[in-house]
Amino acid sequence: MVQSRPDCKARHFNEIEGLRGYLALWVAVGHALNFSGIMDGGAVMTLLLSGHQAVLEFIVLSGFVITHLRLSSPETYGTYIARRAWRIFPVYVVCFLIAVAMTPMLATFVQQVPWANTTDWAGFKQERLDWLTQLQTNGWAHILAHLSGLHGLIPDEILPYSNRAFLAPAWSISLEWQFYLVAPFVIAAVRTTKGVVLLSLGAVALAVLYNAGRMGSYAGYPTLAQAAGYFAVGIGSRLTLERLSALRVSPLALMATVLVALYFFVDEQRPLLLWSVFFILLVWGPQAPVLGRMFQWIFANPVARGLGQASYSFYLCHVLVMAGMGSVALAILPKISHGQMLAFQSLALVLAILVSLVLYRLIERPGTRLGARLARRP
Question: What is the tally of helices (H) and strands (E) in the chain?
């Protein structure tokens, strides 16, 4: 049975704000465990430590949200990109410069913890020591690259650790900025058959070049060549939202089908599994009273939404607070245990939430408003 299509252009997705908050918390918990020297464990610990999958979910969300913004409030490219720049750069630049200043302290911390010479800690320690080397040898190159927001495009062969030095979460900020720059053209193109064909060919060409090593070496997913598929899922989800909302289906049955299909046929399936369940409830939750109310209670409650609003600031600042707290803990307890450090890092997690609320109110939100005012000027 098909109903008339609802108009979703004016809809504000409160649930997405809540999801952002939970995802940021997932990333931060994983980093708290890392700073405590806990690098592996059972199934639950492995899940908590896989915060990179939460970042992939952020990428899907970005594709959805930017597409929604372009559909609901069309504006010139200059206005759009100015608003996006003022949205991400002010708090990002502040956190990045603080991270640069804290790099020597972090290098000292990773060498002085009691587990500094263990195998599990070796990779974490070496990367932070390499950051200090990069600061001493290529500091200005890294700073200029990061201030452009395009540092994720620079392969390690040209500038080692370009996408993640000093402020580890910054690789995804570069990826976001790359997407923002091209998103209006991509969203316009995918609404035509010819555009879909051209974009698909371009994405395949980029993937072939990347997989053949023609674009250089990158850690993680700092370029569109690697992450285009996740953005595409978000874009496609928003473009089909009205049509799907008009269908009457059982969200529970659909979730079960999608979960089984993705579990058996998709590698690195957690981000897509999470998005599939979330999107099904976002679209058809209102048609299932019990599931719909549970969905609203989990994702649209005031606490989740409050954390979601400040999630960008939290995502950027939490590693700085944890690094500082780790150094304080080590000064108090030179022979600190993993459990004791985790207690300090749990305190850092709470403190990072408070710091992020301050950054949101004093830097992020004013920057967003200033960008909106400047963008409205001729």
Answer: 16, 0
Rank 36-40, 198-202, 277-281, 316-320 by mean pLDDT and report only the highest. Answer: 316-320
3-state secondary structure of 2: strand
Range from 135-144, 196-205, 282-291, 353-362 carrying the lowest mean pLDDT: 282-291
How far is Cα 180 from Cα 355, in angstroms, rounded to an integer? 27
Residue among 321, 346, 30 nearest 167 (CA): 321
Contact 271, 102 (CB under 8 A): no
d(CA 87, CA 309): 12
Give the list of residues 6+ apart from residue 148 with CB closer than 8 angstroms, or none.
Answer: none
Tokens 């206005």 -> residue: 79
Spatial distance between the Cα atoms of 339 and 135, rounded to a whole number of angstroms: 32
Which tokens go with 62? 């970005």
Rounded to an integer, what distance in angstroms lies between the CA atom of residue 128 and that of residue 322?
A: 14
Q: Decide if 190 contacts 240 (C-beta within 8 A).
A: no
SS3 at position 247: strand
**Residues paired with 238 in a beta bridge:** none
d(CA 342, CA 329): 10
Whole-number average pLDDT of the chain: 89
Cα–Cα distance, 180 to 173 (Å, whole number): 10
The vertex-59 CA angle with 241 and 279, nearest 5°, equals: 30
207 burial level (CB within 10 Å; 0-12, 13-18, 19+)? middle
Give CA–CA dist 28/318, Å, rounded.
7
Grouping H, G, I as helix, E, B as strand and the rest as coil, residue 252 is helix
d(CA 220, CA 14): 29
Residue in the block written with tokens 């369940």: 277
Q: How far is Cα 169 from Cα 125, in angstroms, rounded to an integer?
A: 17
* Count of residues making up the chain: 378
Exposed / middle / buried, residue 143 (Cβ in 10 Å: 0-12, 13-18, 19+): middle
Give the single-character DSSP code of 150.
-
Q: Which two tokens stand for residue 273?
A: 């599994």
Q: How far apart are CA 46 and CA 42, in angstroms?
A: 6
